[in-house]
Amino acid sequence: MKAVVFAYHNMGIVGLEALKKNGYEIIAVFTHEDDPAETCWFTSVRNWAQEHHIKVFCPEHLNTPEWIQIISSLAPDVIFSFYYRRLVSQEILNIASSGAFNLHGSLLPAYRGRCPVNWALIKGEEKTGVTLHYMTEKPDAGDIVCQQVVFIDFADTALILYNKLYEAAGSVLGKALPGIKSGTNPRIPQDMSLASYLGGRTPEDGRINWHWSAIKIYNLIRAVTLPYPGAFTFSPDGRKIIIWWALPEDEMNRPKDLPGTAAIEQESVFIYAAEGRVKLLDIECMGKRMTGYLIFEFFQDKKGIILPS
Q: Under CATH, which architecture does the 203-299 domain have?
């Protein structure tokens, strides 16, 4: 079965490897040029395609008559999208006689749209998953072919959760690809009443609001810590402080300080939230990374300051 594949990220590599393992003929790969403003911590799909002697294209604008004609001339039986970042037009989807399929990093219909891994952590979910579904003109809305649950541990960061999802994606594709090839795969309509959609994120979305609870702040920190740009706050004099890691504490039996107040206890630094507080474990300010005693040194003359929200 001939496949045209739209792919990016490590999830793109997982998908391409699964297709090869299941005997699909990958006739062309479409991917993206790396964004110089983005930290690319994932493997290059372009390099993978070149190493496997497969045609690879990186169009800036995909849904044009020129590219539609090129894809049509390839005459694919099936189209797959594995973490490709742009919408693929219905005109392109219609080219594949056996359908078009997308791999999404959530348990659809929940968390449609961009950044589902980060959003699941930010929202404090205890589970997420991977879904392979039919592609339609509306993003992430097509019938489900196969999905697998992935449980989220309290200490999971986005990177840790991604690693779990890669394994689940391989399992999902291993189950689904033979049925797609034989035309016997299931089609399970999504329950639209359970659908949720969240958009893309920017580095500025990592700003901490100290009027949130300590748990909500912690969920933001772990969702955008390295390799993402990080959660951040500012000192009263305007210096940006990135919080790469911190842990929440309930502090139910202590008098509440104002949200954003810095406290020091035995060389440990805490910042109070609306409910509870967070213990700072790994921060950065003006290019200097600090853990342990260095955090204490940075805050020792700042006890009682209030970080703005």
A: Roll (3.10)
Q: Cα–Cα distance between 41 and 259 in angstroms, integer? A: 34
In this structure, how many other beta carbons lie within 10 angstroms of the beta carbon of residue 108?
Answer: 27
Sequence ranges of the domains in the chain: 2-198, 203-299
Separation of alpha carbons 113 and 199, rounded Å: 6
Q: Which residues pair with 28 in a beta bridge?
A: 4
Identity (one letter) of the amino acid at 217? I
CATH homologous superfamily for the domain 2-198: Formyl transferase, N-terminal domain (3.40.50.170)
Tokens of 46: 């372009």
> Nearest 5°: CA angle at 215, between 211 and 216?
55
pLDDT digits over 215-269, tens only? 999 999 999 999 999 999 999 889 999 999 999 998 665 556 789 999 999 999 9
